[in-house]
Amino acid sequence: MSAAQQLPASLRAALTYSFGVLALRRPMFHRVLDYEDEFFAFLMLILETHSLRTTDASFSESLYGLRRRAVKIKVKKDDAQLMSGDGINHSGLEKRQKVLSVVFLVVLPYFKSKLHSIYNKEREARLQASLWGHDDERFDDTEYIGGEDSLASSGNLEAEASIRTRLTTRIQKIVGTCYPWIHASSEGVSFAYQLLYLLDATGFYSLGLHALGIQVCRATGQELMDTSSRISKIRSRERERLRGPPWLKVVQGALLSCMYTALDYAQTGLIAAVFFFKMMEWWYQSAEERISAPTVYPPPPPPPPPKVAEEGIPLPPDRTICPLCSQKRANPSVVTVSGFVFCYACIFKYVSQYKRCPITLMPANGDHIRRLFHDV
């Protein structure tokens, strides 16, 4: 169940990496990457719909030999019946359950991915605002030159754009505030259901399956053998529904055969791509770690402290005292040639007059003075 749940994420990673490599030589694939969520949701919609229709299981569940079954709980009053069963009957999926399964498998993950991207943009905007300030603050002094008509038209456009911008900003702020709580609640509920499922306290692996009244069970050998015959019956039934002249039926049947063949090859290719991606990731992971891991060397010993000149000013016992004025340092500044710290006014006056460090007597000038913003 865990592997089936993680398979769509692995498939998306494999497809994204493949299109990223192709986009290096074919720039048109950048459009696919720009609408990555939409393309992947459309692909999963086709795969999940086809899989639920033919096998009563999701795309990933069918690969691991799992099947979805509707759960019907009946209260049995007869003791003999209570002894013979647990009151739970399994049956095939209804049409409503298949549609809702597609919603839980495709639509909800798509909206979650969009909310996650909006949250990341809002977080980046907050970081940029904390570092560089808002865009409005940076462009307040911009001057606009033009006629009255251009100013009026640009004013209307700016008013409409400002309304859209405010609405978008408000939505992004709401998502940025609420999404962490929604994500934490979703992950917490998912973890609770998986833990209860592992301890046999519930037969539902997730909240979505519980809401739909569906349990995922391992398919029997007979069900796996009947899958191919069921698929062929569904396809033959669809061919019988074709209407029109004989030549049109032939064309439509050929198109259906091509579509089914493309679906089969796409499913097989996606499976091979996922397993190949996982194998290559495992194969190169240890080698990449060995190559990319930096060699850890012991830290070098600290340099020896500069020697105090015999004719220089002696150091006070308290490090927070300026050696020149013998008071607590104000605006601490360091002389880079020696590393000693003084008051800025004291050291600037001394270096400007004597052109040296007052303690080591090493040559220095005003360019060697640096302000310390965190005095330790």
TrEMBL record:
<feature type="domain" description="Pex N-terminal">
    <location>
        <begin position="5"/>
        <end position="286"/>
    </location>
</feature>
<keyword id="KW-0576">Peroxisome</keyword>
<keyword id="KW-0813">Transport</keyword>
<dbReference type="GO" id="GO:0005778">
    <property type="term" value="C:peroxisomal membrane"/>
</dbReference>
<dbReference type="GO" id="GO:0006513">
    <property type="term" value="P:protein monoubiquitination"/>
</dbReference>
<comment type="pathway">
    <text>Protein modification; protein ubiquitination.</text>
</comment>
<protein>
    <recommendedName>
        <fullName>Peroxisome biogenesis protein 12</fullName>
    </recommendedName>
</protein>
<comment type="similarity">
    <text>Belongs to the pex2/pex10/pex12 family.</text>
</comment>
<dbReference type="GO" id="GO:1990429">
    <property type="term" value="C:peroxisomal importomer complex"/>
</dbReference>
<keyword id="KW-1133">Transmembrane helix</keyword>
<dbReference type="GO" id="GO:0004842">
    <property type="term" value="F:ubiquitin-protein transferase activity"/>
</dbReference>
<keyword id="KW-0812">Transmembrane</keyword>
<dbReference type="InterPro" id="IPR017375">
    <property type="entry name" value="PEX12"/>
</dbReference>
<keyword id="KW-0862">Zinc</keyword>
<dbReference type="InterPro" id="IPR013083">
    <property type="entry name" value="Znf_RING/FYVE/PHD"/>
</dbReference>
<dbReference type="Pfam" id="PF04757">
    <property type="entry name" value="Pex2_Pex12"/>
</dbReference>
<keyword id="KW-0479">Metal-binding</keyword>
<keyword id="KW-0472">Membrane</keyword>
<dbReference type="GO" id="GO:0008270">
    <property type="term" value="F:zinc ion binding"/>
</dbReference>
<keyword id="KW-0863">Zinc-finger</keyword>
<keyword id="KW-0833">Ubl conjugation pathway</keyword>
<comment type="function">
    <text>Component of a retrotranslocation channel required for peroxisome organization by mediating export of the PEX5 receptor from peroxisomes to the cytosol, thereby promoting PEX5 recycling. The retrotranslocation channel is composed of PEX2, PEX10 and PEX12; each subunit contributing transmembrane segments that coassemble into an open channel that specifically allows the passage of PEX5 through the peroxisomal membrane. PEX12 also regulates PEX5 recycling by activating the E3 ubiquitin-protein ligase activity of PEX10.</text>
</comment>
<dbReference type="GO" id="GO:0016558">
    <property type="term" value="P:protein import into peroxisome matrix"/>
</dbReference>
<keyword id="KW-0653">Protein transport</keyword>
<dbReference type="InterPro" id="IPR006845">
    <property type="entry name" value="Pex_N"/>
</dbReference>
